[in-house]
Specification:
Rossmann fold, 17% strand, 187 residues, binds flavin mononucleotide
């Protein structure tokens, strides 16, 4: 397996399940390894019509968040990048304190120790000091913190445009070439 084609995606219980679905769809052609937390399943039910079957269709490998023995939990498993989208404040706090008690937080801990590319997409408003401190800590440890904050310079007309803006920037940060959204001064 060409590990450069492997991407890992964690979905946690922050609002914005739709961001994960859009990202996974855009990653078609890559070897997609997906973990969905129990919190994410609750939020998915509350704010979308998606089911786990829909997520199965946009991933080549789907893991249970409690499966700490999954192949992706080892530092010997190589991959291009790992995104947690959306990233809840609970998962952020666990990662920032070094906990690795779920598959998502274990893969995050491994990504940090192996210096792999990890992109976190938190979604909360406003931010408490604790949330901000945890973002600072994880950023200093090597993760890229990319909050779900769309820009307005592309003149978005629909919610879809705003979703695509965030997903496009996340793909950029994962090292994935894409034209999901326009760019500043693009002709
Ligand atoms: C409908 C709903 C929306 C939520 N939205 C957010 C959110 O935007 N940001 C956040 O950090 N947590 C949010 N939460 C709380 C998390 O789901 C909760 O902290 C959960 O324990 C996260 O677990 P996980 O990180 O393992 O997925 C929301 C919960 C529900 C039920």
């Amino acid at each position: 397996m060409n590990w450069d084609k492997r991407v890992l995606v964690g979905v946690t219980g922050a609002s914005g399940t739709v961001l994960a679905m859009r990202l996974l769809t855009a990653l078609e052609g890559y070897d997609r390894h997906l973990i969905v937390s129990d919190g994410a399943k609750r939020v998915m039910k509350a704010e979308t019509e998606f089911s786990m079957d829909d997520f199965r269709k946009v991933s080549e490998h789907l893991y249970d968040d409690s499966d700490l023995a999954a192949p992706i939990s080892s530092g010997s498993f190589r991959f291009r990048s790992f995104a947690i989208i959306p990233c809840s404040n609970t998962t952020l706090a666990r990662m920032a304190s070094g906990m690795a008690d779920t598959l998502i937080t274990r893969v995050a801990a491994v990504s940090l120790k192996e210096r792999r590319r990890m992109v976190l997409v938190p979604r909360e408003m406003p931010l408490s000091t604790i949330y901000i401190e945890n973002m600072l800590k994880i950023s200093q440890a090597g993760a890229i913190v990319a909050p779900a904050m769309p820009g307005y310079y592309t003149k978005p007309k629909t919610v879809d445009d705003m979703i695509n803006f965030v997903v496009s920037r996340v793909l950029d940060l994962m090292g994935i070439d894409n034209d999901v959204s326009g760019r500043w001064m693009d002709k």
